[in-house]
Amino acid sequence: MSHVQLSSSALERLVARRTFPLHRRTGVCRNLFGPVDHDELSRDMKAKLREVAERDQQRWNFNFEANTPLAGDYEWEEVSAEKTPAFYLGSAQQSGRDLEPPTPVKQRPSLDSDVPETDAPGDVMERLAAPGSSTGPAETNQENRADKLNSGSPRRVPCVRRKRTSAADNNTHITDFFVKRRRAADMMISGDTRHLSKSPIPLEQTPRKRIR
Amino acid sequence: MAHCTSFPYEPVAEIGGGAYGTVYKARDTESGKFVALKNVRVQTDQNGLPVSTVREVALLKRLEQFDHPNVVRLMDVCATPRSDQETKVTLVFEHVDQDLKTYLEKAPAPGLSSDRIKDLMRQLLCGLAFLHSNQVMHRDLKPENILVTSQGQVKLADFGLAKIYSCHMALTPVVVTLWYRPPEVLLQSTYATPVDIWSTGCIFAEMFRRKPLFCGESEMDQLGKIFEVIGLPQEEEWPTGVTVSRKNFPAVKARPITDFVPEINEQGAKLLMQMLTFDPLKRISALNALEHLYFQDEETSNQDETL
């Protein structure tokens, strides 16, 4: 299962799954739903968030924004650091999460990989996950990007399949996350067949499959 | 965000996420149960919270549905936008009065009884087996984030939040505890769920000793202290592709674990050594540890008595 041969069409499929807009694949770019009123959207979002925040506030009778308790079913008290397990304190005890070794994607040598195609798995993953590579924040907004494509803005992302820069930003984390997860699972299941750092990433394990 | 104009600065007390401040704790007057708030800061962009954060929260909520007895309850997750760059995420947890660190410190003179240790260990491993079977690694298991209720129930805390914390961490000066770190993490090799078993082994030993087993001051020092106990691993066991060479360490031989944990019984010592195994692939799993003879003698002897 870890030696899936990926043809270039499989790669396309993989990429297509991870990138939302259709124009990534077809080269035909249309703004199907008309222009987006970003002010309206933003207003709606804020209203929704306010609604959620109010519900939270009511449920816990606590004003999370001001970090102050309100009257209600929960009797709030402020306790000092010494009187509570360190875990509940914000951060000092969350040691060293930032010192974790980097995600295995980039460490992993793909030398002994059986995958025959020209793109090494790591390369594909990196392109899919390239953190912010050459992609400005503006392009992560899907509607705006479509807009720009139509209007021929100089910052547009050309509809060429090999340019996958727009998979950046958030997808980075998804990929990271699942590669980590995947490894955890591998390790538990496969026992001691091979040292992990040498096994190729099973590319067929896309996020979609993992969720189910 | 509109309301942020009235909050251009955060209150001073919250810097460092309240590390030196206070915690809000409440009693539910209906159930009599306690909850506590834990705040973390998450960086946001124009798309809002990072997808990774949302995903981690979703995972924690899914785990929550199992209602596992050895995992701390996460009751709610509340997001409050702070600015365009930052959102405060408040995690509402059940409140447990003490952690294992305090529990061990408070234990009267000879320390915990061997039965008590066995019970704590069984619960700890149960919680861990549950997390691992859901493909969640803890990665930072230590006495401070193992909670012990007044009834002696063990509850693991602080797992699955790595992505949420990662931003927070970057903003907070932190004293890093290396004492529970396994060799593969210290060597910056690849790692997975066996990391938690190593930490569990360190904690197991500490329950008897009432002081940590390996108190390193740096990564290298920590590795050195580990090898003084388990011996320098064979060349072929050393992970490939790591920058730290095996040659940096003296060729020490393994010493009997009872030199360091004299109170432990024979089966306990065997289990401990299977947890403190250098090669993560040869280290015992949480599930297998629960099947270990160490946990079985008590039951078999009870059975003998009743027969």
From TrEMBL, chain A:
InterPro entries given for it? CDI_dom, CDI_dom_sf
Query: What are the GO MF terms of this UniProt record?
Result: cyclin-dependent protein serine/threonine kinase inhibitor activity; kinase activity
What UniProt keywords apply to this chain's record, in alphabetical order? Cell cycle, Kinase, Nucleus, Protein kinase inhibitor, Transferase
Q: Which domain of life is it from?
A: Eukaryota
Major place of localization? nucleus
> Which residues lie in coiled coils?
none
Keyword check for Ubl conjugation: no
What Gene Ontology terms for biological process does this UniProt record contain?
A: negative regulation of mitotic cell cycle
Q: Where in the cell is it found?
A: Nucleus
Matches recorded under Pfam families: CDI
Which spans does this entry mark as compositional bias, Polar residues?
A: 132-141
Which residue stretches belong to region Disordered?
92-167, 191-212
One CC-aspect GO term: nucleus
- Show where the Cyclin-dependent kinase inhibitor domain sits: 31-79
The entry sums up its family as follows: Belongs to the CDI family.
Q: What is this protein called?
A: Cyclin dependent kinase inhibitor 1C
Q: Which gene encodes it?
A: CDKN1C
Automatic annotation (TrEMBL), chain B:
> Into which EC class is this enzyme placed?
transferase
UniProt-annotated binding residues for ATP: K38
In its UniProt record, which GO terms are filed under biological process?
cell division; G1/S transition of mitotic cell cycle; regulation of G2/M transition of mitotic cell cycle; regulation of gene expression; signal transduction
Keywords, comma-separated and alphabetical: ATP-binding, Cell cycle, Cell division, Cytoplasm, Kinase, Nucleotide-binding, Phosphoprotein, Serine/threonine-protein kinase, Transferase
> Its GO CC terms?
cyclin-dependent protein kinase holoenzyme complex; cytoplasm; nucleus
Residue ranges that the Swiss-Prot or TrEMBL entry lists as coiled coil: none
What superkingdom heads the lineage?
A: Eukaryota
Protein family membership: Belongs to the protein kinase superfamily. CMGC Ser/Thr protein kinase family. CDC2/CDKX subfamily.
Matching PANTHER family: CELL DIVISION PROTEIN KINASE, CYCLIN-DEPENDENT KINASE 4
Q: What is this protein called?
A: Cyclin-dependent kinase 4
Query: Species name for this entry?
Result: Nothobranchius furzeri (Turquoise killifish)
Q: Which gene encodes it?
A: CDK4
